[in-house]
Amino acid sequence: MSTITTLEELFVEQLQDLYNAETQLIKALPAMAKAAHSPALKDSFEAHFEQTKEHAARLEQIFEVLGKEADGKKCQAMLGLIKEGKEMISEKASSEVKDIGLIAAAQRVEHYEIAGYGCVRTYAKILGHKEAAKTLQTTLDEEAATDKKLTVIAEKLNLLPQEEAALKN
Ligand code: FE
Ligand code: FE
């Protein structure tokens, strides 16, 4: 266990956690895209795969400016979230229900990232790392947009008639 005494150290530690989370996601997203049935969902996972590589690159750039190592932390939360995504991939559900389940898993990931980026963006502001704060805000906005897009896709999926009826009751 490392020792964190200052906000600057916490900032670096949280960035390393996010960096590890992003690199785990880069490895996991292609399987999510492959498992998606709806073309819109497949496209969305593929687009977010490209975006996630960009997120990792942005963090690397911040580490370079800070003169710190990007590696150093294993994000246990992302490990668990991806495990749940994999469980959903192997479920025997109908294509629509499977897609909705994949979206549920993906939105948990986005919310985790939104929490993480919101924190480091604020620490960057407090610590006077203006450029980093701007970069982190850009990623935060993209994670939030991805989350919203997933909701729109979920709402457009064709549920079975009886499930549709139940929703209206
Ligand atoms: Fe990301
Ligand atoms: Fe994301």
What does this structure look like?
The protein has a single domain, classed as Ferritin, core subunit, four-helix bundle (Ferritin, Up-down Bundle), CATH 1.20.1260. The protein has 6 helices and no strands. It has helices at 7-35, 39-66, 76-89, 95-127, 130-156, 161-168. The longest helix is centred in the middle third of the chain and has 33 residues, at 95-127. It is elongated, with a radius of gyration of 18 Å. It starts with 6 loop residues before the first helix and ends with a helix. The model has no long low-confidence stretch (mean pLDDT 94). Residues 22, 52, 55, 113, 143 line the site of one fe (iii) ion.
What's the layout of helices and strands?
Elements: H1 7-35, H2 39-66, H3 76-89, H4 95-127, H5 130-156, H6 161-168
Helix pairs in contact: 1-2, 1-3, 1-4, 2-5, 3-4, 4-5
The protein binds fe (iii) ion (2 copies).
One fe (iii) ion is lined by residues 22, 52, 55, 113, 143.
What can be said about this structure in brief?
The model has no long low-confidence stretch (mean pLDDT 94). It contains six helices and no strands. It is mainly α and 169 residues long.
Features:
binds fe (iii) ion; single chain; Ferritin; 0% strand; mainly alpha; 169 residues; 6 helices
Estimate nothing, just give the exact number of structural domains: 1
State the total count of DSSP E strands: 0
Bound compounds, each kind once, are:
fe (iii) ion
Shape: elongated
Mean pLDDT: 94
The total count of helices amounts to: 6
**Amount of helix:** over 70%
Main sheet record: none
Distance between the termini: 52 Å
CATH superfamily: Ferritin, core subunit, four-helix bundle
From the alpha-carbon coordinates, what is the Rg to the nearest angstrom? 18 Å
In terms of structural class, how would the helical and strand content be classed?
mainly alpha
Q: Under the CATH scheme, which architecture would be assigned?
A: Up-down Bundle
What fraction of the residues are assigned to beta strands by DSSP? under 5%
H/E element order: HHHHHH
CATH topology: Ferritin
Low-confidence stretches: none
CATH class: Mainly Alpha
